[in-house]
Amino acid sequence: MSETVLEVRNLQVEFSGDYSIVKAVDGISFQLNRGETLGIVGESGSGKSVTALGVMGLLQTPGRVSGGEIWFSTQANANPINLLELPPEEMQLHRGGDIAMIFQEPMSSLNPVYTIGFQLTEAIMRHQNVSTEQAKQIAIAGLQEVKLLPSDELIEQQYIETGHQAKLSQLVKQHKEAILERYPHQLSGGQLQRVMIAMAISCNPLLLIADEPTTALDVTVQATIVDLLGELQKSRDMAMIFITHDLGLISEIADYVAVMYKGKVVEYGAAAQIFSNPQHPYTKGLVACRPTLNRRPQKLLTVSDYMNAEQTSTGEVVIQAKEPPQPVEVTAEEIFARLNNLSEKPPLLQIRDLKVGFPVRGAFGGTKRYTMAVNGVSFDVKPGETLGLVGESGCGKTTLGRTLLRLIEPMSGHIIFDGQDITTLKGEPLQKLRREMQIVFQNPFSSLDPRMKIGDAVVEPLLIHSVGKTKKQRQERVAELLERVGLSADAMNRYPHQFSGGQRQRVCIARSLALNPKFIICDESVSALDVSVQAQVLNLLKELQDEFQLTYIFISHDLSVVKFMSDRILVMNRGQIVEQGTSESIYREPQEEYTQKLIASIPTGSPERMQSRHSL
């Protein structure tokens, strides 16, 4: 019989406001055995992270655990302890030792002024009675276990192959210790997340909580981190809680899944069962709203297609199931006809041998060389087309997009928009061009000034370009735009913090449409959103394209999203376009190994992928 590590009974967490109390977690219960992985899935605000913080004892005021029990077994055959009854000093001994947590954003979880080595050894020495040198060796072993450092044998082999056989042991020691001297800003997002995992497992925890550990990462890095967590969990026989909003991802790592909605667990069961045959309408909506690679619907279904949720006067949420509409597939004939129609049009945008580099300063201040972010890129975009641009972080996608808008100056090449070479435009001609070309950025939380009302943010482009004769005309235009993106005109008088992430992104889209542009760049514009909100925004972008005859460049690292949106796809790697073609051909017959890796990394929840992951 498996040993129970964690048992949560009727957990309740409340947040007190000035005039009300919000139940963030409302009476949830679950059990987790050693060697098992529990996936907790749901949208933002469902109570996933609050549950994890409650278990860790990290809730901050005004949040508090108002009821329930959290029983934790520190070792085999020992009597479990109720974590909620422990004094803070004793809870600190368990937190980071027996129970470890990996947070969503590694850059904000590590102190930027301390080296990686200092932060790793500090955590180890806090929970283990070891010397500084011993802690350093444990830290290095952890970095090797998470594959941020190669094994001693591989390091030795590298030095032998390069002719450095003298003082081999000393060279290996220096090589391993070098990474401990690096600062967080010197590592990529995937490397930082590996550091966080190494820190979490350094004290051999019985329970590991991973709270959205891959949300900010590319799909390829995400797949690597998920595989790594699966390997570590199996090899160490840890219990693990994996929190995410993506059911496709959770189905490939978890043994059991708890689906949370408004603080309650609305469905619980084996991962394969939850994904292949969901019972609750909310779960059905989460499964349906993510684009898939093997289907091309005209419109994505959303959670609201499966259920209505109403709050009663007592604060209880009542859910009513709905019969969702039958998805309408785009036929091969329709795709061919659209592509054929686009091919007959003259290009709206022509890019010829575009190069963008960033200077690397020498030791004494001189520029020695350039790092080429975009290196000799050429392509065309037709009016009304959506061109997808995919690749991992650092491949040059965002730099290319911003260069097309002249937000970054190119080193050489040509950008021809609507028949005009805009590569060297300056002053007033460049400002006029801004009316025709707009961008929707990745993060809706940082795209809006928190001190500016929504109405003022949307009207700002109209004022800059002197559009609208009177204040009333401009306000009417703002109200029209907000209503078109699914918000009410009343939103004009509210501030960004009063909106959800999806609503903020709708505001950003409304602002980009204010000047009736011909061309919009969507730069990872849905990657920061829940999958259900993502589906709503993707549907909205398609509707707006048809209504206003917009031309998009859609930038993302998620090929399933790009395939749903795009007519053609460009695949970028290291500043160059390595493959291009129609969205169907790129998916069905990828020619480059890099493209094949991108496609293989997308979590699909297919039985084959689930079996592959669970057999680790």
From TrEMBL:
It comes from the Bacteria. One of its GO terms (molecular function) is ATP binding. Keywords: ATP-binding, Nucleotide-binding, Transport. The keyword Transport applies. One of its GO terms (biological process) is peptide transport. Residues 8-287, 349-599 form the ABC transporter domain. Belongs to the ABC transporter superfamily. This is ABC transporter ATP-binding protein. It comes from Halotia branconii CENA392.
